[in-house]
């Protein structure tokens, strides 16, 4: 009901959101992935749509119901996510990169199920996936780029390094080891790091409330820029 009181302050804006994990296939029955549920990204997508934005949601595999967005673009692997994002980013004035992208993928996917043999255990050989957010950071334009950093230690140092390396406007950092934060829970405890060096810890809040707060932050950064 609270959402209904908000003005459509994102009307005319196209917001690209990535959410969920990626899956990197080993063979037809196995993959490498991570614990991302997609909840944070879906909450942002739903909140932006509620506030009048045209939302493009690029989503890895999740168990969540599809939110009411203009376009839902399902992907599986990091490479597919990169292609989807690069195809559509030109339309977006804001990007929220909430997806947990697998950093590595198996160098090859076996055509058939790998059978356990009598000999040595197989070694899984991996190669780097593209860093989608870093690629976005290299594009020109006035588009707002918001990244996420899930850390287990040295939260501020690690997140600040990512903010700089990927040329972001804002990074949303959370310590996944804290209770009430991180993967597959309804709330989050995050620290916001801005490009100008400011950093602000937000109290624990629902991912829905945080989604609206992050959209407020994005609008505020845009306003400051146009001054
Ligand atoms: N990201 C991305 N593409 C990748 C890896 C990460 O777009 N291949 C994005 C994530 O969506 C997130 C941000 O980069 O918004 C930070 O992701 P994270 O995994 O925390 O950082 P990495 O740069 O991958 O560093 P590391 O995993 O070593 O901490
Ligand atoms: Ca990573």
From TrEMBL:
EC number: 4.1.1.36, 6.3.2.5
Keywords from the UniProt entry: Decarboxylase, Flavoprotein, FMN, Ligase, Lyase, Magnesium, Metal-binding, Multifunctional enzyme
Cofactor note: Binds 1 FMN per subunit.
Domain DNA/pantothenate metabolism flavoprotein C-terminal: 10-219
GO molecular-function terms, A-Z: FMN binding; metal ion binding; phosphopantothenate--cysteine ligase activity; phosphopantothenoylcysteine decarboxylase activity
GO biological process, one term: coenzyme A biosynthetic process
Pathway(s) per entry: Cofactor biosynthesis; coenzyme A biosynthesis; CoA from (R)-pantothenate: step 3/5; Cofactor biosynthesis; coenzyme A biosynthesis; CoA from (R)-pantothenate: step 2/5
Catalytic activity field: (R)-4'-phosphopantothenate + L-cysteine + CTP = N-[(R)-4-phosphopantothenoyl]-L-cysteine + CMP + diphosphate + H(+); N-[(R)-4-phosphopantothenoyl]-L-cysteine + H(+) = (R)-4'-phosphopantetheine + CO2
Region span, Phosphopantothenate--cysteine ligase: 15-227
Keyword Secreted tagged: no
GO-annotated cellular components: phosphopantothenoylcysteine decarboxylase complex
Binding, CTP: 103, 113, 130-133, 148, 162, 166
Keyword flag Lyase: yes
Cofactor: Mg(2+); FMN
Family: In the N-terminal section; belongs to the HFCD (homo-oligomeric flavin containing Cys decarboxylase) superfamily. In the C-terminal section; belongs to the PPC synthetase family.
Described function: Catalyzes two sequential steps in the biosynthesis of coenzyme A. In the first step cysteine is conjugated to 4'-phosphopantothenate to form 4-phosphopantothenoylcysteine. In the second step the latter compound is decarboxylated to form 4'-phosphopantotheine. Catalyzes two steps in the biosynthesis of coenzyme A. In the first step cysteine is conjugated to 4'-phosphopantothenate to form 4-phosphopantothenoylcysteine, in the latter compound is decarboxylated to form 4'-phosphopantotheine.
Name of the protein in its database record: Coenzyme A biosynthesis bifunctional protein CoaBC
Residue range from the parent sequence: 175 to 401 of 402
């Amino acid at each position: 009901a609270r959402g209904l009181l908000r003005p459509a302050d994102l009307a005319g804006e196209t917001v690209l959101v990535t959410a969920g994990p990626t899956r990197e296939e080993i063979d037809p029955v196995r993959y490498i992935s991570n614990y991302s549920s997609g909840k944070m990204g879906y909450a942002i997508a739903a909140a932006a749509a509620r506030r009048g934005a045209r939302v493009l949601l690029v989503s890895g595999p999740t168990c969540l119901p599809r939110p009411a967005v203009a376009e839902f673009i399902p992907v599986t692997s990091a490479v597919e996510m990169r292609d989807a994002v690069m195809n559509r980013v030109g339309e977006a004035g804001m990007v929220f990169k909430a997806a947990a992208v697998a950093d590595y993928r198996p160098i090859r996917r076996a055509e058939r199920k790998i059978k356990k043999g009598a000999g040595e255990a197989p070694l899984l050989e991996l190669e780097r996936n593209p860093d989608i957010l870093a690629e976005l950071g290299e594009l020109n334009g006035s588009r707002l780029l918001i990244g996420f950093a899930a850390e287990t230690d040295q939260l501020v140092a690690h997140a600040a390094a990512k903010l700089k390396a990927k040329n972001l406007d804002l990074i949303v950092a959370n310590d996944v080891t804290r209770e009430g934060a991180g993967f597959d829970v309804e709330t989050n405890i995050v620290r916001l790091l801005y490009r100008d060096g400011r950093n602000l810890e937000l109290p624990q809040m629902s991912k829905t409330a945080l989604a609206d707060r992050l959209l407020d932050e994005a609008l505020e950064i845009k306003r400051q820029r146009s001054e």
